[in-house]
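Task: encode each sequence below as structure tokens.

Item 1
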Amino acid sequence: MAVGQIVAGAKQLGVRQISSALDGVLALQARGDDFSIRHSSRVLRALWPSVVSKLPHFGPGELAAALQSYWWQLSYSRQELSLSGVAREHPVVEMTVEASGSGRTARSPLKEQQATDDLRTRLLRPVLQRLGEMGLRQVGSCLTAIAPSVRPPDVLDEEDRAFVRAQVERAFLVDENPEGCGQAPGDFAAWRSDFWLGEVQSLDTAELLELACGIRESGAGPQWVESSLFDELQQRLRPAGRAQPSVELSHLLLLRLCRVMDIWQGHEVEGVLRQLLSSPEAVRPLPTSYFVAVLEALCAFSVPKELPLRLLAAFLDRVERGERSVQPEQWAELLCAIRPLDEQPSWERVVPRILQSLVPHVSGLPAPALAELLRSLASKPYPAEPARGGYSALERAPGVVTAAVREAVEAGRWGLAEAVGVFDSLGQLNWYDERAAAAILAQCARTPLLEPHVPLMLPLARASAALRVHHAPLLHKMVLWYCWCYTYLRPKPLPTEQLDELLEFAGHLLELSFQSLELHSVLAENLRNPQASPRQVLALLATLARFSHFPPEFKETCARVCAESSNTDLASLSPTDLVNAFNIHLCAVFDGPAALKHWLTEDAAMKAFFQVHTSQKWYQRQDQERTSFLQSPAYLTLKQAAEEEGLHLQPSDPGEVYHVELVSRDAKQRLSAWSNDPPVAVVCIKTREQLRWYVPITADGGAEPEQLDNRCHQFRYMFRGAVQKMRHLSAMGYRPAVVWMSEWNALETQQQRSEYLRTALGAPGRRSTAFSPAGVEVEDAYR
């Protein structure tokens, strides 16, 4: 009844009546139920024209009440927008009743955005510009009203926060140093003792804490303001004997105190928070959304990890007892918050319990929450577990998450940047699903590449290599766009950071065995980059050599970097860098022109450089692979199959340029004699060296990837180092025979293995039998 009367007569209300109505709105909002919030939005929409027209006549109290009521309602509406995709109970936009009658939603997103901008322009900025007229209590109320929301997105953007910071600085412009401020000496001290300290002391402890948090959140305020507030709080919260003074904190104030935890270091407030948060029962009244936000704030600071773990374990106990309800996106937020502390014993205590509750609800996550969950999981991938029947959360997670990803991509809920980020996260987790990959590749293939998409090329290439996906039309599109941006947008010569990006991008394409003359020319151009370090020059040479591309400047650059590299430069190279650098010599000898090969093998300086600095790590790596093979079950089964077939095969000797799983026993004699019967080299292609998805460059690039024929369903394709190894073994005179470990490990009987090995030796080329790609099982050394 009262609400209807206010709505009907809103246009005739004066300032005092509007103020009383706003106080009533604040009381309705404090109740928090749907009925009260719906009526508060009705009153605010009816009052809005009068508030705007009479705002210049508002006093400090009315200004603070107007900002509090309207901004709280707007924050509520935006939270509903982030959860359900529609704004509910907006304070300015006229609502329309849903068909179900369950609530009221904004008529259109455009109208809602225009109304929000109107609130910023006609309420927020005018009120903040008058902060200097307000007392500290009203300033604290205004800063509390616009504090960052409990959960994202924040209503204020960066521009708004900058405006808030400027107005807070303007409100506290009184300077402790009177020079240049028009103040006589001693004026500041007198003003502070007569007025400032009196007003500070008139605030209760909760208001002081809110004001201190608001000033810190704004990033403004002179040092003397914070010092004065801290001194007053220190005095009030200092224990009298053994008893700690009690402080009544609202849910939002506790959250704000935790979000600015760093300013309380060594302060009595820190002791209050420690005492409060050390007891799970003390935070029991927190609603779930506030508890999640508090946990996120605690994990962002260097607090003892036992503290948030204990709180979360008690929270999960209450959930299991049915005392708490948790939404799917809140489970995801809990997992993302606790990830930085995901170490023993937290893995045993909380993470499996969260996953067990989260996995069944992954399909219900909003698209942003799903992307953030994947990003968090990929930041610290869990070690793969042996199969336990498919019922554990970790075993179910890949299938459930990839299904949700496919649905989100097909529904168009992500832009290109978000889709590539999700694809990159799946690559880091090694969670592969063909339908999910097809959906993401389809979006990447049909989206025109623009300048803002340049940073996406590297994660897209990285994800393709990690998930073993070779989609040649898409890779060609990526390379052409990268090279165009390099030509027209990048500075010349390339800075060090962008050169590292180029090397990483080329490295992923090299792993995928994708050749591009445009990329070769970009790499060759940077051989003479004056900003390139010796490490980067060696990496450029190695990449070109592995691409079997030897431009005219290759020899000159190789001689220069080998001669000019100091011991310090070489000592800074990692073992991987040294192994990669040996490819300069190795690939040039096998794949390079005769003159270059002669120079590398006959020049004393070149022989010394590669023999002394790089060859040791290369041969050490081969010996490690040999040891790993001899200790694997694959060695025993291959040896038994070879013996049953009467084949005289043995592992290659230590010190060979390539470790070969099995070779003919008289391989050295037959190679040296140039026999017409070349020795056999049985090469095991591990799962990580076998593509899951292959589309050749001859495919129609305009077709949807799911419509393209994934050739891996008919044939096997190797990539990574196996391609170079096979090529060089053939050049050495071996007759390679391939054993695909994804197939070999699936064989159950000795007879099947013997037949497989016999077929592989009898058909050195690629067999044409049908083949199913390997799944996402554990990728150990010989799987």
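Item 2
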Amino acid sequence: MADKKICRLVCTDTGTSLKPVVLTNQEAVVLGRCPVTGILDKKLSRQQVEVKADFECRVLHLKQLSSSPSLIDGSSLILKDQETTIPNGGRFQLLNNKYEYRVIFPTPPALESKPKPSPTGNSSGSTAKRAKGDITDFFQKKPTKRRISEEEPSHQEAKKKAKLDGPTKVTSKKNYRGTVSDSESEDSLDSKDLNIIQETSSKKRTQQQKDYKGAVSDSDDSDVGNKQPSTNAPGKKNSHAGVRDRDGGDTCKAENSVAARTPLNNKDFKKATSKDYKGAVSDSDDNDSDGLSGDRVLSVSKVSKAETPKVTSLKKYHGEISDSSDEDDNKQDPESSAVKAKLTALQQNAKRYLAKQSADRPETTHPDSLPLATSGTDGAANAGKQLGKPAADSKWEEQGKLVVYTSQGVQASNKIAGFDLDGTIITTKSGKVFATSADDWRIVYSEVPRTLKKLHSDGYKVVLFTNQLGIGKGKLKLADFKRKVLGVQSKIGIPMQALIATGEGVYRKPQTGMWTHLCNHGNDGIQVHTTSSKYIGDAAGRPADWGPGKKKDFSCSDRLFALNVGVSFHTPEEFFLGQKKNRFSLPEFDPRKLSSAGPLLSPPQAQIPAQGHPQEVIILVGFPASGKSSFVKKHLLPHKYVHINRDAMGTWQKCVAATESALVKGQSVVVDNTNPDPESRQRYTACAKKANVHCRCFVLNVSLDHARHNEKFRRMTDSAKNHAQISEMVFHSYKKKYTQPTPAEGFDAVVRVNFLPSFSNTKEESLYRMFLLEK
């Protein structure tokens, strides 16, 4: 266990392995491009910040040393020589959106004493703390059993806690005869099994042993459909059956496991089972490698010393403890009736306990299956296969920028296997990046048809989701592309559906319009289960040389599409060839990490209007679509500032004239233009100087990709009516011209404006927090 006298700064960046920085009380340490951090990035100053841990107040004092600003919690920017404090659990970034560290102080002695039993059975709330971790941690880090901070209890403490709190999970031991369960969840705790004993007449024993074969089994599959045989041998005097939760996704393990043991000692116990007992102690699922598709049925037995057996926790409990259902059920002796009454009571207690557990414990989701876009979907993992009627005829439908093909024989399903087309199912015969004709294609891997036929037989509906902007631009004829789709379907040999985005807008991946259309209009009303569905594509954000001679992926749109709709993601090489996962990078701007909390202005002491100045000029600086006009309307117009905007007035000359006129009248002015360079800003600082009034520069703290994201969001909502469309050229032109403003230009102060999003409804917020940019 780590020393209690240290504070740790843990790097949370994905794809990095930087060692933690260890601080002692009141020790000043300089962080930057240095051996202390192990960072070699030349963009980072050697002396970026100075940090000092204050154990008494449990805060980290941080002083900015470099002129390149650092960030606090991803938003609040600190400038050179500025000092701030960061609480335990807080985060800071040495460079904009890079090298993020989390502050971890040791738990105070008062909190390290033996914890009282909690109503939920969790120890010290550590599980909840982990659930609130940085969301990017889920994408590339697999759960381990290593504790990441001193705030988490040790394994021994967790075991003590489990005894106080009651039921938890069961982990099998290597030498435990007949047990095949093993929980890989990092929160697994040892617990006792629930065992129930039912005694009946000896003449049922023969029938019981005959039916018992195969009853205690363990069903587990993988991406290639392998089955894990049960280690239980029927007929032994002490046979222990283990039930293991299967791997429910591509990289994440099922969170809960249950081991059930059934003693069969003929000397001490007699046990009758129903005719349908086979498979009662088993996990049932099909070949779906991404979700559980069958109801779990659990039956276990044992008697505790105090006759108050504990019920093991299961995330979604579908178990039943069934009674004997043979012809002698109506002739039970008093002892059997008493046992049956106990069974019924235990069932009711189990349901109440597990309902409370599921309400108190936050669910853990696969990193690539976060539920950010669930339009028309349901996350029920344990629902069985549900299919619609086969389509009688093939048909093509065109709805604006969306074209839909449904082949004859396609059946609606609650399980969708979605695929990109180019680079995933097919590639060019010519070897060129882009097809030279409608016939320039071949199946990319020989394993593709066989794999898709297996998915079809397992109850999946196979659906193609493809961006084809060339159709909308007139570079590709729709008739030729239809011919290609029909050829691909014929080659694969199964019914399938294809959704084709022919232009920009909501249907183009990674935006979710095609998925929403499928769920709402293209699946015969059958609800899609995202936990049982998957998506495979080659635009995965992989770097150059991810494979021998492989180029960098042209975008990350397929991976982001899967993230947005909430299904597991695989590359073609992983899914068809079984290759290991490759490194990848998500976009630097992550809309899910934006917070509406925090200070609006930096430094926080900056105020609107300026204190001690009855009149002033505020000059805004920021990308198009960075939120300048919204900021003016919400925070400056209520204070009677005159709004100067070139979009409304037409030319900068008219803007300057309006500024001078307002200042003569004694009014304050806000100049709402992009103002990227000193030349454009000097026009208005001169007006302020001439009128001898206070002048401040407000810089919108919004990056290029953040502004591009805002523009995409505008185009998809009603706000597009009030704004002209902004091209990529305009964004990059601003970036090229931009020069960071300084007081030397004539400003009394330079203030940063943090972007604090607000939404009129939850639908808007869900859309905004999706990844809307392809790259």
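Check on item 2: The longest strand covers residues 98-104. The CA atoms of residues 434 and 752 lie 45 Å apart.
End of task.
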